[in-house]
Amino acid sequence: MLSPYFFVITMKAQQTIDDIREKIHSLKKEEKSIAFVPTMGAIHEGHLSLFRLAREHADEVVASIYVNPEQFAPDEDFEEYPRELENDLAKCEEEGVSVVFAPTDEMMYPGKQYLSIEIDELNKHMDGGSRPGFFEGILLVVNKLFNIIEPDFAVFGQKDIQQFRILQQMVTEFNHDVELIMGPIKRANDGLALSSRNKYLDDEQRKLAPGLYRSLQYVGKQISDGAKNVQLLLEHQKNELEAKGFEIDYLNLFSFDKMKPVSKWETGNKYILAGAVYLGETRLIDNIIIEK
């Protein structure tokens, strides 16, 4: 299927590490600051909002488009994940992205990989608890991308908030000279958090999908109003969602610093009210940040 942008595409993706480094070097030679937005492609309005946020912080925006095999388990959707490079490049060009890096697997992982990254504690719950090896794969590829691009800023979305928190720790512990910026969740008109995987939903599932956000909003409001028995509220919302056809992976209140479930909140701390659910085979995630 032809891209609706096919008449105007002039942007070409850089596919080798040497080529992208040459492009970055030329920008830095002009004393341009660089904000980097890593993506897995299938670019939607959520990604575009991150490009716009990146442009507020730097002279040039660099994006990557790469479906990283190291963060997919054998039974997950690596082969089915949408790949739309032509459309993605058109959207990047229209949004003013300066350079796109779209490497192959052979470029990112040449030959046998002898080294890996381990994570302690921060990946035990939430998505890390449900997807073993997921965040190790993300740290591996983002560490590589930071070493290749050497950005001044890197922009990630709040929807993947556990990823952001773990990357914060990586930047601190590995001494990456980059400032992380978290962009707010971009939502459809009915509240559903935008995601490339939303394309998997059929019409009926798509109507139900905003229910996760509504549940988080309800619990969040109750907490803001002073409710103390958070677990009772969460159990009630789990039952409501299951009655509507959702399968619950997790729905809980977590500490922001250690990503651990908490049974009650305390004034002065930062929390994440987060959930992951299935509608059919499609996994949806969402969250709200709560500061008390």
Q: Can you put this structure into words, describing what you see?
A:
The chain is of the alpha/beta class and 292 residues long. It folds into 2 domains: 17-183, 3-Layer(aba) Sandwich (Rossmann fold); 196-291, Pantoate--beta-alanine Ligase, Chain: A,domain 2, CATH 3.30.1300. The protein is 37% helix and 18% strand. It is built from 10 helices and 8 strands. It has helices at 17-29, 45-57, 85-94, 105-108, 126-130, 134-149, 161-174, 203-208, 211-224, 230-243; strands at residues 34-39, 60-65, 99-101, 153-157, 179-183, 247-255, 270-279, 282-291. The strands form 2 sheets. A 5-stranded parallel sheet has the order 3-2-1-4-5, sandwiched between helices. A 3-stranded antiparallel sheet has the order 6-7-8. A hairpin with a 2-residue loop joins strand 7 and strand 8. Helix 6 crosses helix 7 (161-174) and helix 9 packs antiparallel against helix 10 (230-243). It starts with 16 loop residues before the first helix and ends with a strand.
